[in-house]
Amino acid sequence: MGGSVTIDGIAKAGQTLTANVTGITYTPDTTGNVSTYQWYRNGVAITNATGSSYTLTADDLGATITLTVTADGTHAVGSVTSLATAVVTKGDGPAAPSAPAAKSVTPTSITLQPVSGQEYSMDGGLTWQDSPTFNGLTPGTDHTFVTRVKATATQMASGVSLATTIRTSVGEPALEITEPASSNITVSKPVFKGTAAPGSQVTVNIADGITGTVTADTYGNWSYIPEVNLADGNYTVKVTATKDGKSSTVSKGLTVNTADQSSLTGLQLNSWNGTPIGLSPAFNGSTTKYTASVTNSVYSVTVSSLPLDPSAKIEVSVNNGPWQQVASGTTSGNLPLNVGTNTIVVKVTDAKGHVTEYTLTITRESSDSGDSDSSSGGSTTTPSTSTGSSSSGGSTTPSGSGIETSVNGKDDTFATGKESTSGDRKVTSVQVDLDKLNKALSQGNGQKLAIHSSKDGDMKVDGLTAGAVKQLADKGAGLEISNPLAIYPVPGGKMDLSAVSKQLGNAALGDIAVHIDIARSSDTLITNAKNKAAAEGYELLVTPVDLDMTFSHDGKMVRAGQLNGYAAKYIALPEGIDPNRITTGVIVNPDGSVFHVPTVVTKINSRYYALIKDLRSNGSYSVIWNPQDFDDVKSHWGKADVNNIAARLDLAGTGNNTFSPDRNVTRSEFSEIVVAGLGLKRQNAPQNKFPDVSDSDWYRRSVAIANEFDIVRGYEDGNFYGDRQITREQGMAMIARAYKLIETKAALSQEQTDALLAKYADAKKVSAWAREDIALMIEAEIVQGNGPQLLSPQSNMTRAEVTALIARLLKTTNLIDK
């Protein structure tokens, strides 16, 4: 049996449509000496249908076609059932039946009329189904559905297949103007597009003397471009379609504005720590050249701008370096400054292609000694005796260094330091001596090096290179940078230094300068954080602290970005604080909002610290107090875990101080809880990959991040289905993936998996794909079953259960206090 039928047409989205398939020829496979053929329709012999093949007709739709083949007059060896109807159950249009047409429907789901004893497959796949529903069809693509009859000993020797191609269904597009999509036009010759009945004459009237007629194509699409430029102003476009003596008209209002909108309405220059820097003259959108002066301690700056045209493209370049694109209203990355004169250009390109460039000439003071170390991306900060003020509002005066350096706890002077003041800040500047550092590392592997400043204020470390950082990692050595604000262990073994080199033009690691900062956050961020804490009802216990590590070469500065494992950072807690009043450490965003990062309170010498572990190489950190006590968990088994995890801002209640612990959890809620619990939340989430998750969904960021780390996955049709409840085995498997993010070498053999599951009476109910993950959670003592010797893998997971799993995951891996 063979044949192929393609059914084309046009329809609107959401219609249920039926496609009748005829003209298919059935030819049976037979064995033996066949002498007689007779075809039957629903058990009744078909007149003159006695040949070795039969072609379906309209009369056969929905019928069962049976072929009786008699070999030697007695033995029946063939039987075939027809596929007569295909039903489109969901449209995904209007869309094109084939690119680039734009108006016919391609189904994303198709149901083939079920026939007893018949199996179905799609696009040559090896999987055959009794259930004839296929999801995930690609719009604009033909799909071939193949059927076969289940063979028995008395039927055919092999299956008989019918190939049917279903693309779209019937219908006709209405008259419509689809482009320009917006009513505001920024070009003088816009393209007008739309749909109409195929073959109709479409007349487009824009204004007196500006009109044209085109013909709609086979799929009903039409397009028109005026021959003359449209003057700026308001228009009412009328489109009339005529076919077979009938006509219809639609209208659309347009405003044409081709004026240059490439200017800025605002431009702000800031120091690397967020302190505003004044421009001369004061910014005015019509002025394109500005100057500013900064002290030597300002080694990089950022710019933020507001364009007149919100859709304008903004690019920034420093010292003729590569262009960096910056979103409207946001802040650029750090722009490194050389000692002396620097040129920053802000280029604005509006939607019409007009370009305006703003030039900022920034002069950075030299150090007192005039030394300039190009390997560190700029001069080191040396105290100045000058009492004159600069545009950053500060003077620089000398004092003692307060620097202590050690190797394995013993004094070893491999770095020197100097203290200065800049504005209202004290700054301790450290210079590492690479020769002495290398000498210390040559003494053996596993060396523990430390640079500590006992002075209050900010701390800046220069002199290291990416090559030195790699050497530290290769030798298993550690380097801690610390002052009274924080301890920053350099995460050398968890950074992709090759990626850093690529960002800097494939520079050699030894030529890439490393700069490390421990500093009080900018006044703006601190104010925002305090305001957000007051509004959200938690207490900010520590003034936010910036921990930063940057790499620079040839005037360009980058960061390592996300680490390949959790790294430690220590934030000093205020003297005399009750360590029991610490809820969690947080990462502080520029707007003052905070995200939980896994935190343990620890004591070093006589000082308490918040030991924070996360995947970031830099950020602004603080510590909060945010106790929770939900009314409806006071006597619940999950009380301690629910209140603990909620206090860390990892999950929300359900209103009126309730948590609803026994309510089933959805996939979207789970994503939010696990991403927040692991400290993965961030504002610049990756692009969402699921078509059923919109940008306005409250869980969009969490789902995108959880999918980025392979904690949650979509279904075969590409969707996420955030409102679906998750089963216990699904939840346990997702927790297992999160566990592997922390314990990267976690894995079990088949024998270990079977042994761990064997003690549970319902282990056979665990799906094959989830067995190893659940066994891994049992071994880690994160999963404890559901009652005596039961896993209940197919039961739905509750909010309390997922909270308990997250709490055990974080405690087991020592990311939070036990």
From TrEMBL:
Annotated spans, Disordered: 362-428
Bias-annotated ranges (Low complexity): 372-402
Domain of life of the native organism: Bacteria
Alphabetical list of Pfam families matching this protein: Big_13 (PF19077), Cadherin-like (PF12733), SLH (PF00395)
Domain SLH: 625-685, 686-749, 757-818
Annotated protein name in UniProt: SLH domain-containing protein
Biological source species: Paenibacillus elgii
